[in-house]
Structures are given as C-alpha cells and as structure tokens.
Write a structure and sequence with these properties.
By secondary structure, the chain is mostly helical. It has helices spanning 5-51, 53-66, 70-75. The chain has two domains: 7-41; 52-83, no CATH class. The protein is 81% helix and 0% strand.
Amino acid sequence: MAPSTTQRLASVGQQIKALQAEKRRLQNLATQDKRKATDQRERIVGKFVLADEQLCAIVLPLLAEQMRKTDERTLFDLPPLVG
C-alpha cells in the first residue's frame, strides 16, 4: 500500500529539517575554516613584521594609535590609555 499524502508530507518535512541542519553544520564549518585562515595569515604577517626591526619601527607606532584594549597594549609594552 502506498503511503498517504499526509505520511509523505511528514517524511518530506523530516528530510527538509535534516537538510537544513546539515546546511547549518556546513556553514559553521566554512566559517571556522575562514577564521582559521585569517588567524594563520595574521600570525604570519605578525611574525614577519616583528622579525624586521625597521618594519617594526614603522608598524608598531601605527598599531599603538589604534589599540584600545589594555591587554593588547600590554603585549606591546604600551601604557594603558587614560580616559
């Protein structure tokens, strides 16, 4: 006996929910992959800058102007911002 329309509808609804969950999972993995790649690029650029004294002398003052968080400033031996 063939499934009723109601049964088929319920089955399709379950398939849709499963596919939506899989889509969310894959989107999360893609976001994680992008974040990992960004972090890796930042580490590589940071290593490159810190390894070159002349480049460091140019970049660190520029960074100091932009850094607002005390913990970030502490990493570079910069005083906390007042105010």
